[in-house]
Amino acid sequence: DTGVSQDPRHKITKRGQNVTFRCDPISEHNRLYWYRQTLGQGPEFLTYFQNEAQLEKSRLLSDRFSAERPKGSFSTLEIQRTEQGDSAMYLCASSSSYPLDRSQGSGANVLTFGAGSRLTVL
Amino acid sequence: QKEVEQDPGPLSVPEGAIVSLNCTYSNSAFQYFMWYRQYSRKGPELLMYTYSSGNKEDGRFTAQVDKSSKYISLFIRDSQPSDSATYLCAMRLSDSWGKLQFGAGTQVVVTP
Q1: Which residue of B has its CA nearest to A107?
Q2: What pLDDT score does A72 carry?
Q3: Residues 48-107 (A) with a CB less than 8 A from some CB of B
Q4: Residues facing A54 on adjacent strands
Q5: Which pLDDT belongs to residue B41?
Q6: Could you report the per-residue pLDDT of B55-105, keeping only the tens digit for each?
Q7: Is A29 on the interface with B (CB under 8 A)?
Q8: Residue A70 phi, psi (nearest 5)
Q9: A105: Cβ–Cβ under 8 A, 6 or more apart, which residues?
């Protein structure tokens, strides 16, 4: 297993176009997350899935954003009618619902991040 | 005011020195605390993971959590040029599995 894979690594698009990013999580991980990171800031939570169910969405996820995880495997994040403010690094992460280290108590849910997909909107 | 505050740096230290990083936070309900390292144009990589208050050591890295002061720290001993990166603190509530609150990150430069 090579970790969390994201594609494409960099996407340049014109304002108003639609873009789609793909994330392939670690195979045994049942949880998948999307975060957005802008320059000089830490990642911000967008949404997360447990298996194929989207369980939480941030208010940052406007109606132009949609995420799917069909069959509970890979996920896609689509941005419609892109705006210059959408320029950012889109990070995907995955985790298992089983604690990595049981000595830490229940809920030790450790995220492994991918390298990210950088979006530039001109 | 952000929930998690972190000095952006840059923090420049000579090789072999101890790097000291910290974050403060406002939500006393946070229970899980993490430190991630992020190299330029890469995703964050988990370094340390602690639950509630206390210290945790892993090789050259020591993480400390002081919940009474709402303050967490990361120390890197015997720093190397390869430690040059941005260090992000992150934390979450006990029942908020993947919703991490990150600091803005501190850029660290270790000079040979």
Answers
A1: B94
A2: 84
A3: 48, 50, 56, 58, 91, 93, 95, 97, 100-101, 104-105, 107
A4: A49
A5: 86
A6: 999 999 999 999 999 999 999 999 999 999 999 999 998 877 778 999 999
A7: no
A8: -65, 140
A9: A99, B51
Per-residue model confidence as pLDDT tens for chain A (122 residues): 579 999 999 999 999 999 999 999 998 889 999 999 999 999 999 999 999 999 989 988 889 999 999 988 999 999 999 999 999 999 999 988 765 554 444 445 788 999 999 999 99
